Amino acid sequence: MDNYQIIHFNHPIEVKSLSFLDIGKDLSAVDEDKSQQDFVDDFADLIHSKLKTVLKMADQEKSPLVFFSLPFLKFLKKQDLNLMLEIKKQVDSGKIQLVGSCAYHSFSYLCSPLLFKKEVELYLNGLKEYFKKKPGIFINTACLYDDQVAEIVKSLGYQGIIATANPWHLAGKHSGQVYKSNTAQPFNILLSNGDGPDNFQISLVNGYGSAYNSDFIDKSVSNEKQIQELFMMDSSVEHSVYAVSLPLSSPSWEHKIPDYTNNPLQKALLKQGADLVKQFHDKLSAEDFKLLMLLCQPEHLLQINQTSKEEGYDHFISSMNWLTDISLRYK
C-alpha cells in the first residue's frame, strides 16, 4: 500500500466583538494583537517542532504534502523569519509539496459557493507573497466535497482534488483509484479514505490549528511519487464517476458538519452571510470578504453552538452586528 499524508497548518483569526451601538463606526473586525499573541504562546511547544519535522522529511527527500493557511504563514514570518525562509527554500525547490485549500481554513462553502470561490482565489493569490510555486491539488476544509466544489476548484486551475470517500456514493467500487467528477468538464479526484482494498491511503493530519483527529506526523512516509502523478488519467481507461450532490466531510475531522450548521443561530448567521454575498458580491471590499470568511471559521461557528447558551448567543449577536455593519456600507 502506498501511504500519503497531508499535514495541515492553520492559525484561527480572532474576530472582535461588536455591539449594536458600534455598528457603522468603521471599526476593525480583526483582533490582530490577540491572534498574534496566541500564535506566539503556542509556537515553542506546539508549532516549532512540527515544522522542524516537516523540514527534516524534506531534507530526506520524502516530499511531505503540506497545507499552510495564509494567517499561519503571516504569523510564522513575524515570529521566526529564518524558519519561514527554510520552508520557502524547500517549497520552491519542490521538496515540500504544497496542497491548496481555503485561505482561512474556513467553511465558506457552507455559507455561499461565491464566497468559497473568492476564498480559494484569495489563497492562490496570497501564496505568491511567500512561495514561487503554487499547489496543483486541492483539499477543502474538513475535506468537504460535492459536485459543485469540484466545479469551482477546476475553474481556478487546479489539476485535481482530494475528496471524502463514501461507500454509498462509491456503489461498491473500492476507493484506491482515480475517479472523475460529476461535472460538465470531468475533473480528477482522489479519495482520502475508503472501505475497500485500497492500493493507497491518504491520511489527513493536524499539524497545528486544524481539527483532524490525528496530530501524528508519520516521519516514515516517503512520497516517492509526486501526488500529482496519481491524478494522471490514461485516456484509454474508463474511470468511474463519483457523484456527490450534498457535501460530505471527512470522518477524520473532529466534528460532524451539523455541529456547524444545524443550530438555529448558526443557520441564521450562514443565511444572512449568503444573502449579503449574493446581493453585494460585486461591491464588497476585500476586507468585507475577509470578515465574511472569518465568520465561517470552524472555531467561530462552534462558539455559537458549543459554548454556554449565553456565550453562544453573544457570539451570534456580535456576528450578526458585523453583517449589519457590512450591509450598511452598500445601501
Automatic annotation (TrEMBL):
Single GO biological process annotation from the record: carbohydrate metabolic process
A Pfam family the protein falls into: Glyco_hydro_57
Domain annotation Glycoside hydrolase family 57 N-terminal: ranges: 65-194
Spans through the membrane: none
GO molecular function terms noted in the UniProt entry: catalytic activity
Keyword field contains Transport: no
Classification via InterPro entries: Glyco_hydro/deAcase_b/a-brl, Glyco_hydro_57_N
Keyword terms: Carbohydrate metabolism
Family as reported in the entry's similarity comment: Belongs to the glycosyl hydrolase 57 family.
Protein's name in the database: Alpha-amylase
Organism: Marivirga sericea
